[in-house]
Amino acid sequence: MREATLRRKGRNLRYAVSDNTEAHTRDGTATWAINLHGYFAGGGMYWRESANLAGRLGWRIVNPCIPGFGDSDPLPKEKLSIGAVAEEMSALLDHLGVERAVLIGHSMGAAVAVEMADRHPERTLGIIYRAGVATPAWRQRRGLVARVLSVVSPDLAGATDILVAAVLDVPDLFIGRRPASTFRRLWPDARHNVRAMGGAMAIGSMLMSLDLRDTVARVCDEGIPLLPIWGCFDRITNAATAAEFASLTGESIVWVPGGHSWMLPRPRGLGDILVLLERGQLFMEDVERRLQDLTPQPLAMDARGRALEAG
């Protein structure tokens, strides 16, 4: 992964791009994907996963730090919205000359992916939607902490239950053969996020009021390939959230071992789904068909170099 900075409207937008510059499809062009991270994370936390996908699939992968996270400057609070974040990501693709891409989103990043696809369906090859917060069921907390605190303060109960769920999700990050490597990859972005807590809190407040159910419905109507994936032990966007998304889209959920952030300690996991599982293989086939449908075909020419009319 090669790091770089886009200077945009006086702000720095940090990102990295996979270094497989020779990657290409049969027609000689690269298939691109953008890996959109979750809340209080950063693009660097997903580098190992993106490098694995680039190597196995031959995709060029972009890992941005969404404004306000990692080392990217936050958006002005008065302009902060999921639409504004989506446009920042689209501007990054413009900067890189990427016409179309697969949108890989996790948690907050999945909501950004849905918004990007709704705004620019012609640029979206497919969405890998991982435990997203685009629909509101995740805010309806029913855990023990929420039930106890709701007696005292209903507003505090939900936020506290989410915080407890996030804390309980942490041990899952260090399960695997390389916990030290996982920590080294997580720490730089986490350190930046702690230092810029104010911007992160503003985005968190925005997410708590987000409801993109109509947006999701429009994306489905566009026929954009969709692959929803959830961790079996996800306590943040729980099973009720997965059921809500499945009901809204008509897509069954692909369940994987792990919690909310299962992909961080298991960077090969998504590649395994796309390469080895039938559901992932079908998604890849749908992405390839959509790429062909959206790519302009060269005009047939006669012997004098003039375009031939169709039919």
Label this structure with key terms.
8 strands, 15% strand, alpha/beta, Rossmann fold, eight-stranded mixed beta sheet, 311 residues, 43% helix
Describe what you observe in this structure:
The chain is an alpha/beta fold and 311 residues long. It has one domain: 3-Layer(aba) Sandwich (Rossmann fold), CATH 3.40.50. The protein is built from eleven helices and eight strands. The protein has helices at 47-57, 82-95, 108-119, 144-149, 154-169, 179-195, 197-208, 213-221, 239-249, 269-276, 278-294, and strands at residues 2-8, 11-17, 32-36, 60-64, 101-106, 124-130, 226-231, 254-256. The chain has an eight-stranded mixed sheet with strand order 1-2-4-3-5-6-7-8, with helices on both faces. The N and C termini lie far apart (46 Å). The model has no long low-confidence stretch (mean pLDDT 89).
Write the layout of secondary structure elements.
Layout: E1 2-8, E2 11-17, E3 32-36, H1 47-57, E4 60-64, H2 82-95, E5 101-106, H3 108-119, E6 124-130, H4 144-149, H5 154-169, H6 179-195, H7 197-208, H8 213-221, E7 226-231, H9 239-249, E8 254-256, H10 269-276, H11 278-294
Parallel strand pairs: 3-4, 3-5, 5-6, 6-7, 7-8
Antiparallel strand pairs: 1-2, 2-4
Helix pairs in contact: 1-10, 2-3, 3-8, 10-11
